[in-house]
Write a structure and sequence with these properties.
This protein is an alpha/beta fold. It has helices at about 5-15, 20-25, 25-40, 50, 55-65, 105-110, 130-135, 160-165, 210-220, 240, 275-285, 305-310, 315-320, 365-370, 410-415; strands spanning about 45, 70-75, 80, 85, 120-125, 145-150, 155, 175-180, 180, 200-205, 225-230, 245, 250, 260-270, 295-300, 325-330, 350-355, 360-365, 375-380, 385, 400, 425.
């Protein structure tokens, strides 16, 4: 019966089960087992306290049927009667004198779900011993995707040997960390040999990233093709993209990042530290020598305009990305004299463009002539010009113009040149359009 339902509906059904309902052996055996058999994986949100209080027959059920699951979401969260004060937990044999859960309760989950492919683990302990979850003899060799998150104070992975952490996860290809501080874990010798791992995707959000991690990644993950560093460590943001080794500052060199396909780069410096920003911009040029398919670049820095223009940043980005299919620029830098020039002569594969630069200008006619396969464009600039109709029709399908002061002539030339265009969206309202020409 359940196999005849759309998968979206079954997903909704599965997500509605609470921890209490999971503890109900009768309901689990009748409904969840059918979903297990149909999906071969399931999105399970279960509190660790649930595993701790399972009865013997329920434990037997999970051990007998847990092999069917492919996705598990564990949540470790303290109950707080008042802010900052933990609520007393009932006395059980699984609690120590301080009322803390033993780590064995988490390891039990590995027995219940031995073939888990994807694990998400959220917790609110400041220094929860994450590494013990994957210590030797207890690591999940089946795990390919792992997401760790802390929704309280910034969490940590108190593991002095980060290399050993990955040895316990030999098949991990996707690692995403949110509010996890791994800065304290990188205590290895930079000359120490490492065992290559299979990681292909690395994402670090809301946590400090030491420069040594960049060097570690370049040697540890030869198959890495997508990396996202969105950190809160603004003063050392440039160290994410450059590192100091034997007195020499360089970028991730060698063969390791030649296959990098996507980059999400966010450079922020609220303190006006021009040196670090300048180092980051210089290393962007080396990053862009990779055959990127998608680039998302956010600049939010308070430095002098001359640094940006001297770097030639705007002209170098597309010139060095011959395989670029998507470009997303969000520039909130307060330049002394707003100036914007984007040369796409060497980006013939560009299909999606999103630019937000309130002080920028662009010659859209020249822009389209150098991007023949562009399909979608979102432009939030100061001025857009389009003086003449293109000689050859362009395949642009949609364009959104935000905050621009444009003329009716520009709109006419866009419509006449882009014969396949389906959507033209203008924000704010049309009365902002000048018809003087």
């Amino acid at each position: 019966m359940i196999s005849k339902l759309p998968r979206e509906i079954i997903l909704i059904i599965a997500s509605t089960f609470s921890a209490k309902e999971i503890r109900s052996c009768s309901r689990v055996s009748k409904e969840w087992l059918q979903i297990f058999e149909y999906f071969r994986w399931i999105h399970i949100q279960v509190a660790l306290s649930t595993l701790k209080t399972l009865k013997e027959d329920e434990m037997t059920y999970w051990k007998d049927n847990g092999y069917r699951s492919r996705y598990l979401w564990l949540i470790y969260k303290e109950d707080h009667a008042t802010k900052g004060k933990p609520r007393p937990r009932p006395k059980t044999k699984d609690n120590d004198d301080n009322g803390d859960y033993h780590i064995e309760n988490i390891k039990d989950a590995q027995d219940y779900f031995p073939n888990i492919k994807s694990l998400r683990f959220d917790y609110d302990e400041k220094r929860f011993p994450i590494s013990m979850l994957f210590e030797n003899g207890h690591g999940w060799s089946s795990l390919t995707h792992l997401k760790l998150g802390s929704f309280g104070e910034s969490g940590t992975i108190p593991c002095d040997d980060l290399d050993g952490f990955f040895q316990c996860l030999p098949n991990l290809t996707d690692l995403r960390l949110d509010s996890i501080d791994i800065g304290s874990c990188v205590h290895f010798d930079l000359n120490q040999a490492v065992t290559p791992a299979k990681l292909k995707v690395l994402e670090i959000k809301n946590g400090s990233v030491p420069y040594r991690l960049a060097h570690y990644c370049s040697r540890k993950f030869p198959e890495l093709h997508s990396v996202v560093f969105d950190t809160i460590d603004e003063c050392r943001i440039s160290d994410v993209y450059s590192f100091s080794f034997n007195g020499r500052r360089d970028f991730w060199t060698g063969k390791y990042l030649l296959d990098l396909e996507a980059a999400d780069i966010r450079i922020k410096d609220s303190g006006g530290n021009a040196y670090h920003v300048r180092c980051a911009l210089w290393n962007l040029e080396k990053l862009l020598s990779c055959p990127l398919h998608k680039l998302s670049l956010t600049l939010s820095v308070h430095i002098n305009q001359n640094i940006i223009m001297k770097m030639g940043l705007f002209s170098r980005i597309p010139a060095l990305t011959r395989t670029l299919r998507a470009l997303d620029l969000d520039i909130s830098t307060p330049l002394d004299k707003p100036c914007f020039s984007l040369n796409l002569s060497n980006a013939p594969c560009l299909e999606d463009l999103n630019i937000r630069y309130l002080g920028g200008t662009i010659d859209f006619q020249d822009f389209l002539s150098k991007s023949p396969v562009l399909k979608r464009a979102i432009l939030e600039l100061q001025t857009l010009t389009f003086r003449n109709k293109l000689d050859e029709p362009h395949g642009l399908e949609s364009i959104e113009l935000i905050g621009l002061s444009i003329t009716s002539e520009v709109l006419e030339n866009i419509s006449a040149s882009c014969t396949q265009i389906q959507t033209i969206k203008i924000s704010p309202a049309v009365d902002n359009i000048s018809t003087t020409n």
